[in-house]
Please model this.
Amino acid sequence: MRRIAPTAAASRLDAFIERERVRVDEALASAAAEIVSPVGGALRAPLEYALSTSGKRLRPILFLSAYRAVAAPSDVDPSPTVYRLACAAEIVHTYSLVHDDLPSMDDDDLRRGRATVHRVHGVAPAMLAGAALLPIAMELIVRESRALGFPPERGALLVRELCRAAGADGMVGGQLLDLEAERRVVDETMLEAIHRAKTGALLTASLRLGAIAGDAPEPALEALTHYGEALGLAFQIADDILDVTGDAASLGKEAGRDRELRKASYPSLYGLAGAQSLARRAANEAKQALGELRSPVLLALADYVVERRS
Amino acid sequence: MRRIAPTAAASRLDAFIERERVRVDEALASAAAEIVSPVGGALRAPLEYALSTSGKRLRPILFLSAYRAVAAPSDVDPSPTVYRLACAAEIVHTYSLVHDDLPSMDDDDLRRGRATVHRVHGVAPAMLAGAALLPIAMELIVRESRALGFPPERGALLVRELCRAAGADGMVGGQLLDLEAERRVVDETMLEAIHRAKTGALLTASLRLGAIAGDAPEPALEALTHYGEALGLAFQIADDILDVTGDAASLGKEAGRDRELRKASYPSLYGLAGAQSLARRAANEAKQALGELRSPVLLALADYVVERRS
Model:
């Protein structure tokens, strides 16, 4: 096998992800300008601060890749409105970061390379700005679904999907599991349950939202769901590994926090080499789950989440 | 004027409100059983605790009264599904109570006659259970709108209405205004802005949700919006008065908290008699706003909110 092929493919993916990220950033800024800028009072500043950080934008990129994988060939280049719709997942993710960083949660000072929202704007404004981000994401879904002329049932499906991912059996429930785990011995089953809820639910939902927006048939939706579950696991194992091997400058957040908070992690349970091999296995499982769904980008993203440096 | 007439009307209203409250409690229990009981993990207990308190259920009662005021004469007795839909407003209200009581907010020990959620279940579980209540309310709207066979646009309108009431320009924004007001001199304009957002937005939204569910024509929706704004003001002034004149046993929460937290209130700005006269004036304005909309219950509720003892 020639070494040039994967390298060229990897650099094409890097360039693609970079272009997507720029378009997602533009869409997020445009959504924020429409929905957040008119907000009166003291919440606007922490909201704009929270939404203006840079980020990998993995969730909207997954949304858009799923959308492209199922949409008609004529729609391989989604409109700016679809990009704004994809930002709903990023806004919910941002809400979770703002709340996770709070002193009563993980108590972090640094996020995405900048001071956390509560360090700049205070605890109560950060908590309330976080709380305001969920209805902002929901309103964005309703608004962009209408702008896209979606049949209204599809809008309802999108709202329900995001509610479930953000709710008690998803992100919010996972955060509580994670906090509880700090006070007990955590085995592999428990660790997987935490991450499936805390991170996996929204990653999978991002793919499902894109697939629903693209009016995917049921088998494609199922394939993307399985892909998302395996990808979420790979992503989280890689995150745990980066917490050990990375540094604050490239991570944009404090490294070594898992050990400091005595959190169970894949490296602490399986060792570094064991965790790396698990991440690779999960990425391969994600790729296999795609089955008939031809999507070079989703295939490449499965490698990307385990090979990334931040 | 004979004294017996208003008394008889008042006692009929009391009996009506009591019947409504019982039916709302049943609907809330049934919605919680469907949506909260399947929740896995440690969030179920604080969620069930938060939703099982008793309450005035003013928001669902406003929803149902608006629904009755605009619905076809054949639908004067809404189905249990409509009652469950009405509970979405109560669930969002419950979320706000759970968060407002947190130590980083108003730091209260007692709510609706019981220990607050964080006193029983801990700060992080209370915070996360509160956060989970909003997507639960949204999912309830999507689910019951479908069960009622609403055209899907109506479901989208309902979701958007609740998002706005719960968001940065509504409840959550109002809470931040309220916290900030503790550290400055608050005049009447500021006090009204706080309450319009913190309490008024959800009370008005409850009426608008009921009206939208009942497919109200635009003039009726506008009349109910104005009624809600004036009713919200009357309600809040009465709440401030009760904080001075009431006791913990009948209020179900600590009395005298406004003074303790040095919060500006209508009695502190206008004196007790001045506040009582303002509350009465707002209630009358609410009644006038109803205009052509014949609703004995909404007329009577305007008096009820200023004359209540808890």
Residues 4-35 of chain A form the longest helix (32 residues). The first strand of chain A starts at residue 110 and ends at 111.
